[in-house]
Amino acid sequence: MTDAAFSRNEMMIVAAARELAGQRVCFVGVGLPNIAVNLAKRTIAPDMELVYEAGVFGARPARLPLSIGDPTIVTGATSVVSMYELFSLYLQGGLIDVGFLGAAQIDRFGNINTTVIGDYGAPAPRLPGSGGACEIAITARQVFVIMRQSKRSFVERIDFRTSPGNLGGAEQAERIRREGGWLGRGPSVVVTDLGIWHFDETGEMRLDSLHPGATLGDVRASGGWEPKVAPEIGTTAAPTDLELRLIREELDPGGAYTR
Amino acid sequence: MTDAAFSRNEMMIVAAARELAGQRVCFVGVGLPNIAVNLAKRTIAPDMELVYEAGVFGARPARLPLSIGDPTIVTGATSVVSMYELFSLYLQGGLIDVGFLGAAQIDRFGNINTTVIGDYGAPAPRLPGSGGACEIAITARQVFVIMRQSKRSFVERIDFRTSPGNLGGAEQAERIRREGGWLGRGPSVVVTDLGIWHFDETGEMRLDSLHPGATLGDVRASGGWEPKVAPEIGTTAAPTDLELRLIREELDPGGAYTR
Amino acid sequence: MPVSDTKVASMRDAVTEFVRDGDTVAIEGFTHLISFAAGHEIIRQGRRDLTLARMTPDLIYDQMVAAGVARKLVFSWLGNPGVGGLGGIRRRIEAAPSAVDGADGLLPRLEVEEYSHFGMVARYTAGAANLPFMPLRSYFEPDLPAANPRIREIESPYGDGKVYAVPPLKPDVTIVHAQRADRDGNTQVWGLLGCQKEAAFAADRVIVVVEELVDETVVRADPNRTIIPGLIVDAVVVEPFGAHPSYVQGAYDRDNRFYLEWEPITKDEDALQAWLREWVFELDGRAAYLEKLGPERLAALRPSGPAPSGAVDYGAYR
Amino acid sequence: MPVSDTKVASMRDAVTEFVRDGDTVAIEGFTHLISFAAGHEIIRQGRRDLTLARMTPDLIYDQMVAAGVARKLVFSWLGNPGVGGLGGIRRRIEAAPSAVDGADGLLPRLEVEEYSHFGMVARYTAGAANLPFMPLRSYFEPDLPAANPRIREIESPYGDGKVYAVPPLKPDVTIVHAQRADRDGNTQVWGLLGCQKEAAFAADRVIVVVEELVDETVVRADPNRTIIPGLIVDAVVVEPFGAHPSYVQGAYDRDNRFYLEWEPITKDEDALQAWLREWVFELDGRAAYLEKLGPERLAALRPSGPAPSGAVDYGAYR
Fold it and tell me: pTM of this prediction?
C-alpha cells in the first residue's frame, strides 16, 4: 500500500483507534474521538463499552453519529440516564477506563486548551470551552488525545488550561492528583496526523512512532518545542483495507472528518 | 347518630381527613396519616395530589396501602421516581403544601419525638426514628399531626426532638426558620382522639374543638401541661355515614387502624 | 373543566404570558428535544435583555443572540458539534469591550458565564433541590475557577480534602420539548434525558412543548417514564416537529443537513440576519416554518424503522 | 461464552463468593424488591460481624440481627410499617451496655448509626458519586446531629448560610432484587426505585437477584428502564419469588399477612429463634422455602389483573 492510498487524517484516525486495543470502557469526546472510537469498536475493540456524555452507556451506533447526542447512540444502548447521573455515577464514580478527547492546543505535558486563543476576556478566537473535557481529564483512568499537529496546536504555553494533563511535569502532577483525590492518572497517548506520542516518566510526551511518509523534520516544524523522540522510533503500520473501507463507506462517507 | 355508632379512633381519622379540605399537595406519613389522607382523597379533597416518600407523586391507591410502599400506590400514579429525587425535588424543592405526620410524643409547641423514650444511648423503648419526618417538618409548608392523646404522648418535655415544631415558641421558631432558610412554617393542626388543636400566635397548640363525648376533663387528664383552650370551643361534627362506610368497608376492613 | 382552565396554549400565548424581558431563560435539551419553536417565537415577540442558559447553546441560541434578545449567556460548550462554530454568538463575545452597548454600529457585546458540563448540570440540580451549592470533583487545576469566580472551593467537613462547588441555577422560565404530555403537563420523555428534569424543577415557570397531547391514562400507565409532573408546569404547547432541526427520539431524526448548512450562514453576519428574516421574522409561527421546509424534507427525517420498547406490567392491586 | 465465564450464579455461590465476614452489606429496596432470599442465605452461611445498612431494616434485618450476623446497624426508620416493631433488633438496641459482647447469656448489644431517610439516600448518593459529602437542608434543630456526630454542619461558600452534610456510604456489597436482568447483569426495574441505583453504584461488589433472566435484546429495547449496568454487577442470581414477603411490582403482591403475623413472633425471642430454625436453618434454599409456603399462598399474591405500561418507539436510525 502506498502513501497515496490514504490521507494523513485517515492514518491519524486508524492509529488512534488501534491504541484502544484491550480497553473496556471508553468515554467518547466530540469530533475526531467519535470516529476513532467507533472505528475501534468495529475492529480492534468490539467488546469495548462506549459512554457518551449525553447520558448513554453501552451505545451501539448503527451509523457514525455526527453529534455525540445523535439518536443512533440511544436505540439499542444498554442504559440511558440523565446527564447529572452520567457525570456523577460513571465519570466521577470512577468507571471510565479511557477518556478520548480532542484539543485545540496542547503542551508538552499534555495540558489541553479548548477554551480561547488569546486573552479570556477578549478572545481571538473564542473556542467551544470545556464541555465535559475538564471532568474527563480529571477522572478517566487514562486520557487519549487525537488532534492535528501544527505550530498553532503544539505550543510551548497553552493560552488557557481547560483540561489538566501532567501540569508542570509528572512529579507535580502526581502530588496534586494524590492530594486532590483525582481518579485519573492523566494523559497517556496523543495521536496526531504525523505520529504517535506516549508520556514518559517525567510526564512529557515522547514521539514513539511516525506515520508512513511523515519525518522528524515534519514533526519539528509542527510544534513549539524541541520534541522528545524515542531512541528507536517506529513506523506506524499503514491502514488496512478493512480500516479504510469502514471509514470511507460506513463511518464517514461524506468525508466530514477525513477531508 | 349516637356516640356508640363510631369509635374515638374513627372520629380522629374523620376529623383529620376533614382538615385537608382545600389542600393541593399532601405528603403522606406512615401509619394513621395514611388512612386519614386516603379518606380525605375519597371525600373532601378528591383533587389533592398524594405524595409518598417511597417515590410516588399523584398516587391513586385502589385500596388502603398497609405500608407506604405498597404496589397500589404505584399502579396508575402520575410519576414514580427514586427516593433521592423525591426528597430533593419535591420536599426540599418546596412543592409540598401539607406534610401529615404521626407522633409518639408531642409538646405544647408541636415538637415531635418518634425516636426514643428515655435516654438515646439506652432507650426504653426504642421507637422507629425519623424516616422522612424530620425533613417533612422542616420543608412542608404546613405540618398536620394525627395521634392518640395521653399522659405518655402529650408531654411537658419530649425525650428526643426528631421533628422540630415551633421549638420554644413562635418567636424563636420564626427567627430560626428565617435564618436557616426553612421552607416550612411549622405545625398547624393536631388531631387527636379527643379533639382538634390549632396553633396560636405564640406557637402553642390550642384546643379548638372537642369530639362528641369527649370533655375538657378528659383532655386535661390526657396531657402533661395545662392546655390552652379556645374561648368558644366547638364540637366536632360526628362522622357521616359515608365516612364511616369508607373507613369500615374500603379503607380498613380489618380494623388495623381503628380497633 | 372549561377549556380556559387548562394549561394547553398556543406557542404565541405561552411565550407572551410566561417569558418576560430580563428573564433568565433555559431552553434545555442535549442535542435531543431542543425547542427551536419556542426560541423563534421569543425572537418574533422581541424579548430583550434575556440571560440565556444552556449547556450547549447550539444553533437556537446562535439565532436568538443574533436576533438581539440576549444580554448574557450561561453555558458549558459553545459550538456546532462535529461541524464548526456559532458565529452569531462568537462575534459578540470576541467584540471589543467598547462595543458593550452596541454603539457606533458595533455588534453589542455579550456577557458570558462559563462552566463545564458537569458544572452546569450540577447547577440545575442544586436549583431544583433548593440547595445553596452542589459539590463536585472538578476544576482542581484548570483556569476556569479563575475566569469564573462563582466556581468556589469547599472543604469537606470530614477532613478529607477540598472539592469544588457551583451555585444553584434557577431560571425564571424553563422550556422543554418532549414526546408527550397530558393536559395537566405531566410529561414523558424517552431517549436522551439531558438535564431537562432538573432545569424544570429549578425554574419558577415551565413551558412544555410536545409532539403529542395524550390522555392522562397514557401517562399513568407508565409512571416511571414521567420526567416532569404537571404540578410544576404552567403551559402545554402542542407543536409537532417543534424541535426541528434538533430531533425527537422515535419521531424524527436530527436534520444534520441543516447543521452542516448553518456553518456558512453563521460565519457571515449579513447571511445570518437574512436567515432570521426569512425563517423567523417573516413567518407567523411554526406551521408556516414547516410548510416552508416542505413535507418531503420532514418525511425524510422519519426513523428508518420502528424500535419498540416492549411493554412491562405494573399489575393491578385492588 | 462458556457458562463458567458468566455472572449467573446460584444464591449459595454468590453469597459465598461476594459476602464476607465484617463486610458492610446493603440489602436495599423500599418495601418493594427486598431480597429476603439473599438475607436468608447469609444467615445460613453464618456470616458474622456484618454492618447492615438499610433505610428501613424491615423484617429481613430483624431476622438477620436475631440470627447473629450483625455487629452494627445503619438505618433511618426502624419498624414493621403499619403493624408494629422489630423485636429482634430492638431487644439488642435496648440491651444494657454490659451486654456488649453477649456474655452471661445476655443478648449481644447492637451498635447503631442513625439518619433520616433523606440522610440515608444522600449518603448512598455521595458514595455512588465519589463525593466526600452530600449537602442537605435537614437536621437544623433536631437532636439527631447530637446523637450522630457524623452529621455535620457546612457553610455555603456563597455566604448564604449553613446546611448539613452527611458522609458517603460505600457498602462492601449491595444486594438488590429486580424484575429482570440479562446475563451480564444489566438490570431493569419498574415501580418503586428506592435507593437501589445509588446503593449499587456506591458498592464495591453488587449482587443482582431477579425474577427473570432475559436476553440482552429485551434490555436494549428500552435503555431508559435500566437502573444498573452490568459493568458494576458481580453476580446475577435467578430467584423467582425471592423477595417474598416483600413484593415485585407486576409479579406478586406484598404478603401483608406475613407482616401482620410477624408481630407476635418478633415480640418473643424464643418464637423468633424457632421461626429462624424452621424457615431458614432447616431449609437448604429458596426452593424449599417456597415449597413450604405452598403454591396456594404464592398464587394468592398475584396481582388482581394486568396493568400494562404500553410501549414507546425509540426508532431505528441507520
Answer: 0.97
List chain D pLDDT tens, one digit each, 318 residues: 334 468 999 999 999 999 999 999 999 999 999 999 999 999 999 999 999 999 999 999 999 999 999 999 999 999 999 899 999 999 999 866 655 555 566 678 899 999 999 999 999 999 999 999 999 999 988 899 999 999 999 999 999 999 999 999 999 999 999 999 999 999 999 999 999 999 999 999 999 999 999 999 999 999 999 999 999 999 999 999 999 999 999 999 999 999 999 999 999 999 999 999 999 999 999 999 999 999 999 999 999 999 999 999 999 998
Residue A101 lies in a domain: yes
Q: Which residues contact A184 (CB under 8 A, 6 or more apart)?
A: A99, A137, A138, A139, A140, A141, A142, A143, A177
At residue C67, what is the residue type? Answer: A
Contact residues on chain A for C243, CB-CB shorter than 8 A: none
User: By the CB < 8 Å criterion, does C251 face chain A?
Assistant: no
Residues of C in contact with D314 (CB under 8 A): 190-191, 249-250, 307-309
Q: Where are the domains of chain C?
A: 11-114+170-300
- A204 within domain boundaries: yes
Q: Which positions in chain C touch B49 (Cβ < 8 Å)? A: 231
> The domain at D11-114+170-300 falls in which architecture?
3-Layer(aba) Sandwich (3.40)
Q: Per the residue annotation, which of A10, A53, A204, A243 is the catalytic one?
A: A53
Helix (H) or strand (E) holding B8: helix B8-18
In sequence order, what are the residues at sequence separation of 6 or more whose Cβ sits closer than 8 angstroms to the Cβ of residue D103?
A: none
* C201 in reach of chain B (CB within 8 A): yes
Query: Do D161 and C312 count as a contact with CB atoms less than 8 A apart?
Result: no
A195-199 and D235-238 beta bridge pairing: unpaired
Measured CB to CB, residues of chain B less than 8 Å from chain C are: 25, 49, 56-58, 60, 62-63, 70-72, 74-80, 88-89, 92-95, 181, 183
B108-B112-B115-B120 Cα dihedral, nearest 10 degrees: -50
Number of residues in chain B = 259
Residues contacting A68, CB < 8 A, separation 6+: A28, A29, A30, A34, A52, A53, A54, C31, C81, C82
Per the structure, the complete domain to which residue A223 belongs is given by 8-251
CATH of the domain at A122: 3.40.1080.10
Cα dihedral sign, C27-C30-C33-C36: positive
Distance from CA of A73 to the nearest CA of C (A): 9
Task: Determine whether the interchain pair C307/D318 forms a contact, defined as Cβ–Cβ distance below 8 Å.
Answer: no
Checking phi first, is residue A215 left (phi over 0); if not, alpha (psi -120 to 50) or beta?
A: beta
Contact B56 C315 (CB under 8 A): no
- Digit-coded pLDDT (tens) for A122-134: 898 999 999 999 9
**pLDDT for res A2:** 44
Sign of CA dihedral A230, A232, A233, A239: negative
Please say whether the beta carbons of C193 and C176 come within 8 A: no
All chains having 3 or more CB pairs closer than 8 angstroms to chain C: A, B, D
Q: Is D137 on the interface with C (CB under 8 A)?
A: yes
Q: Write the single-letter amino acid at C41.
A: E
Number of domains in chain A: 1
Cβ contact, residue pair D158, C132, below 8 Å:
yes
Say how far apart CA C89 and CA C111 lie, in whole Å: 10
Closest CA to D91 of D66, D71, D117: D66
pLDDT beyond 90 at C3: no
Q: What angle is formed at CA A183 by the lines to CA A182 and CA A186, rounded to 5 degrees?
A: 85
Q: Find the closest chain D residue to A183 by CA distance.
A: D130
Does C221 contact chain D (CB < 8 Å)?
yes
